[in-house]
Structure formats: C-alpha cells, structure tokens
Design goal:
The chain is of the alpha/beta class. 44% of the residues lie in helices and 15% in strands. The chain contains 22 helices and 15 strands. The strands form 3 sheets. A 9-stranded mixed sheet has the order 1-2-13-12-7-6-3-4-5, with helices on both faces. The chain has a 4-stranded parallel sheet with strand order 9-10-8-11, with helices on both faces. Strands 14-15 form a two-stranded antiparallel ribbon. A hairpin with a 2-residue loop joins strand 14 and strand 15. The longest helix is centred in the middle third of the chain and has 22 residues.
C-alpha cells in the first residue's frame, strides 16, 4: 500500500475510543463472574456434547491484575466473509497483548482456518498493525471458509499451535465460525484456549449479551447511501422501478435497517413472510398493488428492497429448497454425472414431493438452474446466486400485463435490478465499527490474559458512547442449539432473526404504508468520519430502537 489516499492517511492517525476500564487499565484487568446463561433449547444434548464449556458464567472486567500477563503467544484467524473493521480487531488484540506484556506475540494465521491447518502464518508486528489501522478488508492476513471439523484437522491445528507456542486461538467470524470456536474450545480444553469475536454484516449473530456483530453498522450505511442515491435518481427520472436485493441470507436485518434509514416505497421482511405463510404469488400481488396505486397518482417509479434469503422464508419454497439440499447431498456423485440441464431437471423433478415439484415447476428455468447450482460448504443453496430481484420483476411484470389487459392497470412498469452485497463488505469502518472492533480485540486480549476459553468477546451498552461500553465475555455454549445440517443433527449457534414484536420492526411497520404512496425518501449521503457527533458517531437505527 505505497499510495495512500488523503482519507487513508487521516484514518491511520485516528485512535479509537476504549471502554473506560480498558482505557485506564489496558488489558491488565481481573474478571468478575456474573450469571450463568443457558441455551434456550436442547440443554441436555448440549451439556453432554460440551461437558467442559457448558455452564460457564458471564464475565466482566474490573481494575486489577490479569491472571496471566505473559509472556504468551496468541494466534488469530479471520474466518468467513469479510466485514468492515476486522483489521481493528487485530489492532486492538495486538495493543491489548502488548499492554499486558511487551514480550507477548501475536501470530496471524493466513487465509482463514486453513492457516493453522496448513501451518501458514505471519507474526504481526507494530509496523504491520499500524499499516492497517481503521482500514476495511481482511487483506492483512486473509480469510477463508474452511472449517476445522475433522479429527485429523483438529490434531493438525493442535500440533501447529504447540509448535508455535500458541496459548490461545482467537477466531473472528460469524455464527458458523464461532460454532467452530465453541467446538474447538471443548476439544482443546486444558491445552489450547479458544475465544471468539462476533463478525457478520448480516447482523444475525446477536443476543441480549452480544448486542451486535461488527461490520453491520458500516455495511448498512454503505448500502443506504447507494439506495438513497437511487431514490434521488428515481425521483428525478420518474420512469423506473428499482428492485434492490440486499445481503442477508438467514435474516432481514440489513433490509430492515436500510428501510429505516432510507424509507423505500416497499420493503420485504422475510421473517414476516414466514410468519404470515405468504406465497410467492401473494408477495407478487402485494408489490403489483403498490405499483398500481402509485400509477393512479401519476407515479410510475419507485424503490423496492428485497432481502437476499427471501425464497427460503416462503413456505413452499423453503420446503422445496430443503428437499433439494437433502436430495443433492444424498445423490451428489450421481448428480455430477448428469451433463445436460434437461437431465438435471428431470432427475430432480422425479425425486421431489408432489408439492415441491409443483413449486419448482412454477419458476422460470433460469431460477430452477440457479437452485441446482453448487452448494456452499454447509450443503445449502447459495442464495446470493439466485436472482430473486429479477424473479420478482418478471412475476410482477407478468401480473401487471394481465391487469392491463383486464383494464385494471393503466400505468407503466419499467424495472431495473440491483444487488448490493460486496460493495459493503470491505468499506472503511464507520467510527462506530472502528471503536467497536478495536474494543472487541482489546477485550479478547483481556480474556486471554485471564486464561478464559469457550467465550465470545462482548461489549454491552452499545447505544452509549464507546467510553461507557461494558466489556466482557459470554459463554459460547449459551448461544447454541441443535439444527439439521447436511442431513444430520449438529450443534450450531442459533441465528438471530428479525423479531416481529421488536421495536425496529414495529417502527418500520408503523410507517411503511405511508411510504408506499408518499415519496418520503431520506438521502443519507456518504459515511462521515470527521465532524459533529450526530453526523459521524451515531449507531444504527436498529441498535438505538432496541435500547429505547
């Protein structure tokens, strides 16, 4: 990075704010044990699977001496997809370790979980850390979606850590990566300690104690800037409907937050679709009705937001996708021998239930083939590759043509499709995420200094200024449940979905009807780093409403 922009230079000089106890003590703090949180479900099964790490208490920090200041060596892994702020977690981890003991070392495993499995690493020194402070991306050490699951993989990781003298392994990732951290903490108990950090722009790794995953704040503000730019364009040109798909496979937190920020004409919340057991046809009719009503007011333009994982929340599509996942996993070898699209479609239709076969047949062939594409590492359909926004444009357009033929629609419908995903994953972190990530890394260092394992770094009170946040650790097992993956029951961290009785959704529901006809667009502008706090430092609407 020899050529730096003026903003890059200015951000490199920025020093994030730490919670008071860490600002005053560094990572030289003692832990205070609190209540013992238990999983919401499957407690007996989880207790048997995690006999060492089940039933640990929540810990917070207080002034005092850490149990183990070092010298010690910590390994860090960036796991899964990128999220803004990952470099600041490493920076906070590095600074926290050095505050414990200048001789402490930080080893960065390269390329994600594959790093410790293949013995690829880099010692992170001050020059390396300083070059990446407050920057986006994961390019300091890279990331990957490998999982340390097989016994031989765990043995290799243990050997790598022992060879390097790694006392604690820090895994920075989403729900799947922290599930892996939980399993490793149990497997390595009494030997190598394992601590997680909550990362995902999707916002679905959270609970009462883990109030947010890092990157969500930045990504939503990036997407909201783009949405509001499109809203301005729609209002100016007055001739296009923009169907915008937003990242968020398993939950609609991004779509909901962006709707709260930008006030689109229509926004689908997948969790509501599931609760109402809506069909693809009923969703199509709702959107078409909004368009028809706007046409009566002389408005043949608008903005529609669509969560990435919508299809998996529509009951008949959820059943279809579940059957396809199991079918393609069970017949994986044979399916790969089928060379033509016709052969693949015929094979699938002959093995689906009658209901799922009917649902599959209603879809355009392009969408059918996208549903049959290669699975992700967990055996699931890769929903980001399904062009749901184009599917809805096609279905809505067909319905409006029917209405026009029947004389019930006299407007015009011209639509453009967008998918905002990768644009938000590696943006320079907002002031909120810069502070949050740095404090998460520092918190992980303090947990390591106190010999903790099986915890995820946590900061509470995130609606307050960073100096008032409460750092500590939450036992990973308290976030687990049993789910079916690749045809088997497995322990995994429960994903946090949009709560329909929660304040963020209720705020959205109270205003969405007005937004369908009024053009109450909000033009949020680009992320600001310097200036008044109400412009630069505010958390998401979701976080503020959840604490109101």
């Amino acid at each position: 990075m020899s050529t730096l922009s003026p903003l890059h230079r200015a951000r490199a000089a920025h020093r994030p704010t730490l919670p008071a106890v860490l600002a005053e003590q560094g990572a030289h703090v003692k832990t205070v044990e609190g209540e013992t949180p238990l999983p919401e479900t499957d407690r007996n099964e989880l207790n048997k699977l995690f006999s060492h790490t089940y039933g640990l208490p929540i810990v917070t920090f207080a002034p005092g001496q850490a149990a183990n200041a070092g010298p010690m060596t910590i390994g860090v892994v960036l796991s899964g997809g990128q999220a803004p702020g990952g470099h600041n977690v490493n920076a906070g981890l590095f600074d926290g370790l050095k505050s414990l003991n200048p001789k402490n070392r930080l080893i960065g495993f390269l390329g994600g979980p594959a790093g410790p499995m293949k013995g690829k690493f880099q010692e992170l020194d001050a020059d390396t850390i300083d070059a990446y402070r407050n920057t986006g991306g994961f390019d300091m050490i890279g990331s990957g979606r490998d999982k340390i699951e097989k016994p031989e993989d765990m043995a290799t990781v243990r050997a790598t850590c022992q060879k390097l003298g790694v006392d604690t392994l820090i895994i920075i990732g989403g729900d799947d990566s922290n599930t892996n951290a939980c399993v490793l903490a149990e497997h390595f108990w009494g030997d190598i300690k394992v601590i997680g950090c909550p990362k995902t722009i999707d916002g679905d790794l959270k609970n009462q104690s883990v109030e947010a995953s890092f990157g969500f704040d930045t990504a939503c503000k990036v997407y909201s800037e783009l949405i509001s730019n499109i809203e301005r364009d729609a209002l100016s040109a007055k001739k296009y409907y923009h169907f915008i798909k937003l990242m968020g496979r398993s939950a609609s937190h991004i779509a909901l937050e962006c709707a709260l920020q930008t006030h689109p004409n229509y926004c689908i919340i997948s969790e509501e679709v599931a609760a109402k057991r809506q069909t693809l046809a009923s969703i199509t009719r709702e959107i078409a009705t909004v368009i028809a009503n706007r046409a009566k007011a002389g408005k043949n333009f608008g903005v529609v937001l669509i969560p990435e994982g919508l299809l998996e929340f529509i009951p008949e599509m959820k059943q279809l996708i579940g059957e396809l996942n199991d079918l393609l996993h069970e017949h994986e070898v044979h399916f790969k021998t089928l060379t033509s699209d016709d052969d693949r479609l015929q094979f699938v239709n002959s093995h689906l239930s009658l209901e799922s076969s009917r649902a599959f047949s209603t879809l355009p062939m392009a969408i059918q083939l996208q549903l049959l594409a290669d699975r992700d590492p967990h055996g699931n359909v890769q929903v980001s590759r399904i062009e749901t926004e184009k599917l809805l444009i096609d279905l809505v357009g067909d319905l409006l043509k029917e209405w026009k033929s029947a004389g019930t629609f006299s407007g015009k419908f011209s639509a453009l499709a967008h998918f905002f995903g990768y644009e938000g994953r590696c943006a320079p972190p907002t002031n909120f995420d810069a502070n949050y990530c740095y404090a998460l890394g520092f918190t992980a260092a303090a947990l390591a200094g106190n010999g903790k394992s099986g915890y995820i770094a946590s900061l509470r009170g995130l609606d307050k200024p960073a100096a008032e946040w409460l750092p500590g650790g939450i036992p990973l097992t308290s976030m687990m449940n049993i789910e079916r993956r690749k045809g088997k029951e497995k322990p995994v961290i429960r994903k946090a979905l949009v709560e329909l009785d929660g304040k963020p959704f209720q705020e959205f529901a109270a205003h969405r009807e007005a937004w369908t006809t009024e053009d109450d667009y909000v033009f949020v502008g680009p992320i600001q780093y310097f200036g008044p706090s109400d412009v630069c430092d505010q958390p998401t609407h979701t976080l503020r409403l959840e604490h109101s």
